[in-house]
């Protein structure tokens, strides 16, 4: 388990350099006392491991920039990929407050040759575009949700794709009587979508329309990760019950870590049919391949126990399928 006595640890992402696993994580001082205050104080820490169990903390990766900047409030969740020229690119969320005091999120990146020293590129490189995505000015959400970039190589070798936690600029629509006229039928909460961008070189990005439609039962799909588990393509995402539509809450939905079946890493995804992973104390799950065995492992951070925020990262779990149900088994060490 990765725990810091002086700080809460929550969202994280990993990368394997071939010899060691690197854990990049959000953290903020427990001296804040209020766990909710951590979001406005988040920095990106760094730890390394050879077994996904024993972690050595090393120098932090990123901190917020001096204002004015797109990341002058905090640095939030991201992902790391390696460019063909050997450089490592860390894509991350920059948080800043607008004139109304609302949190506006956008996406930037930093570059490293060794995964330890990171140089930020001028940013942001991507922000919410009102052609497809909800902005704070729309007035339906508590912030401008545009974050958690997950970058992956195109399956056919055509550049790079980014999956983004975002919200659609409209609700779900339906043609109720078959006359070809559609009407908006959705709760304003029910606008969570998988945002999408593409790049040829990891440096310049083209924002595209979402890969999913609103009205699938989620206000936001946080910290996305496509992954193949035992030959089965899924999309992992996260959503707390408070960020789900009222109808879902009334039916007894529980929030947490979710997995949806997918036809490929870029979809289509069965978001409406997603299943929550059993342990409700866990949040922001991640699949990681165990280099020694080739098997899939699962890590998450412990969100709460007995109604209190915890803020630590679990040891890895073994994962397997029991029919359509994903089973987590603690590993013995």
UniProtKB/TrEMBL annotation:
Residues 19-170 form the Glycosyl hydrolase family 32 N-terminal domain. GO terms for molecular function: hydrolase activity, hydrolyzing O-glycosyl compounds. InterPro entries: Fructan_Metab_Enzymes, Glyco_hydro_32, Glyco_hydro_32_N, Glyco_hydro_beta-prop_sf. It comes from the Bacteria. Keywords: Glycosidase, Hydrolase. CDD domains: GH32-like. GO terms for biological process: carbohydrate metabolic process. Belongs to the glycosyl hydrolase 32 family. This is Glycosyl hydrolase family 32 N-terminal domain-containing protein. It comes from Terrabacter aerolatus.
